Amino acid sequence: MANILVTGGAGYIGSHTCLELLEAGHDVVVLDNLSNSSEESLKRVQELTGKSLKFIQGDIRDPHDLDQAFATHKIDAVIHFAGLKAVGESQKIPLSYFDHNIAGSIQLTQAMERAGVFNLVFSSSATVYDEANISPLDETMPTGMPSNNYGYTKLIVEQLLQKLAIADPRWSIALLRYFNPVGAHKSGRIGEDPQGIPNNLMPYVTQVAVGRREKLSIYGDDYDTIDGTGVRDYIHVVDLANAHLCALNNRLNAKGCRAWNIGTGNGCSVLEVKNTFEKVNGVAVAYEIAPRRSGDVATSFANNARAVTELGWTAKYTLEDMLADSWNWQKQNPTGYQS
Ligand code: NAD
Ligand code: UDP
Predict the structure, then answer these.
(1) Is residue 327 a part of any domain in this protein?
(2) 339 pLDDT tier (thresholds 50, 70, 90)
(3) Ligand 1 within 6 A of 33 CB?
(4) Which of 142, 235, 253, 296 maximizes the CB count within 10 A of its CB?
(5) What CATH code is carried by the domain that includes residue 38?
């Protein structure tokens, strides 16, 4: 069993991953500045598992915080979630995105080097693929120039980490390219709790269903897809969390830098998501058709064969599970962790 430093571990994907790490018998140290999360998620992770983790309120851009974390705890590997993730905001305040996501990742790897820790799992995104690629997207396809600054930071960090692993063979790095994480832990005790108006489809749907928002705007119904609405590869956050454990195992026995897609391989349209949500949960979601959102592609879904064969990972949950679990979380926590 290993001692894992989880940056951004109080957030949506991080908290689910901490839970799976603890369940698997690992020790967990979370470093998070709580800029987009609350310590309540970690309290609940500990309640659910009956195990404790260490929490450091700190910033990945601060070498002091990082050095202290490595000096106090004998860390074997790092899972790096910390960063900013709102696409629209990244267009308005690009320097913050460059600072947290790029400079923060550089600070983190420098601190890892000082501490002699060379195993890293990085949260990347399907957004790094060139938009001209036709789905299913596989890891051999070219990356492109993401249309927004958030995606750009993911691409840059991927490239930096690839170059780092080539230059210094001590490094062992996994780049996990997430497709569309949704859902929540079965208990409904932890889940996605976006601040302000949600950018992503799933939290918007659940907030309409719970009465916090009037109606969902579906961005475009004239794409070349099954029903004209955008098609994405939704992946249950617990399946995604488990992919990190598989990647850790893989990286503890390998060197170099390698990318894996983490998606189910199934594409679902926005209307399919809305209709299935209503059917599975017996609750209505008011909606309107709105203009296309700038920067969106019609279709994006994964070829996940590399993760299945090399990491021994599979996605266990169906779309119905994802939608039931998202609703279970939102229903129990209508205003998120503030409830
Ligand atoms: P989140 O905002 O819930 O979690 C990120 C966490 O990082 C938060 O707890 C926040 O407080 C913390 N944080 C931010 N800046 C920090 C800093 N400088 N120092 C320390 N902590 C900091 O987001 P999430 O959805 O859990 O995403 C986790 C990672 O996965 C992010 O890197 C995100 O870009 C990536 N990702 C997310 C999605 C998605 O749709 N959710 C898709 C692809 C990739
Ligand atoms: N979407 C939508 N209304 C919303 C949010 C998203 O119709 O309020 C659509 C969006 O156009 C895309 C899909 O839902 O086709 C997934 O969008 P999301 O922002 O969740 O993820 P993305 O794939 O863009 O990262």
Answers:
(1) no
(2) low
(3) yes
(4) 235
(5) 3.40.50.720
User: 55 and 11 in contact (C-beta within 8 Å)?
Assistant: no
Ligand in nearest proximity to the CA of 206? 2
Measured distance CA(303)–CA(41) in Å, rounded: 32
Element (H, E) at 145: none
The pTM score is 0.98
- For ligand 2, whether the C-beta of 232 sits within 6 Å is yes
Contact, 173 vs 226, CB < 8 A? Answer: no
- Positions annotated as catalytic residues are 150
- The average pLDDT across 66-84 equals 98
Q: Check if 14 has its Cβ closer than 6 Å to any atom of ligand 1.
A: yes
Q: Which ligand is nearest to the CA of 85?
A: 1
Residue 48 resides in a domain: yes
Report how far residue 198's alpha carbon sits from residue 203's, in angstroms, rounded to the nearest whole number: 6
When pLDDT is cut at 50, 70 and 90, the band that residue 305 belongs to is: very high
29 Cα–ligand 2 center, Å: 33
pLDDT for the residue 253: 83
What separation in Å is there between the alpha carbon of 274 and the centre of ligand 2?
A: 12
Owning domain of residue 87: 3-182+234-263
DSSP classification of residue 263: S
- Residue 193, CA distances (Å) to 181, 196, 326 in order: 13, 9, 11
